[in-house]
């Protein structure tokens, strides 16, 4: 079972749920709703759109249960100064992927999203390689991502972080596989 990842830098924290989240639950609901109702942030993830605060609350409750069951591992990208959520990185287990996808092989899948005002700051370019290194330290090496083929920024981010195009996923998306030995620093 994957251990939740905890990373910090001078301005941000990446972590899964912690004990303090029960105290700040309503703020987390607000933050997740703001993120997952932002048209620009969801340009290539329209299926993630939330339409109400109650949907955001349900998403967080399900993510907490799934974390403890080992189905998926939602990690929040938080501002260090106030703990507000500005994005997330989610790891989907092979077992959960098997329930939704028809593939020959089931890796861990990574999904990520960041608020529009932070996407231009290239934060994910700084965060994702460290996050992936943490997964590798846990002996999680088979990692993939499904990316909309029109999302050039995400494709570039994945390429710089050690992913390579692997295969068509569906009419709009492709699978990229993590190959850390081929990280593109350009």
Report on this structure.
The protein has an eight-stranded mixed β-sheet, sandwiched between helices. The radius of gyration is 16 Å and the shape is globular. The protein starts with 6 loop residues before the first strand and ends in an 8-residue tail after the last strand. It has helices at 25-35, 53-69, 94-100, 116-119, 123-137, 152-160; strands at 7-8, 12-15, 72-79, 85-92, 108-114, 143-148, 163-168, 173-178. It has six helices and eight strands, in the order ββααββαβααβαββ. The model has no long low-confidence stretch (mean pLDDT 92). The protein is of the alpha+beta class and 186 residues long. A hairpin with a 4-residue loop joins β7 (163-168) and β8 (173-178). α1 (25-35) packs across α2.
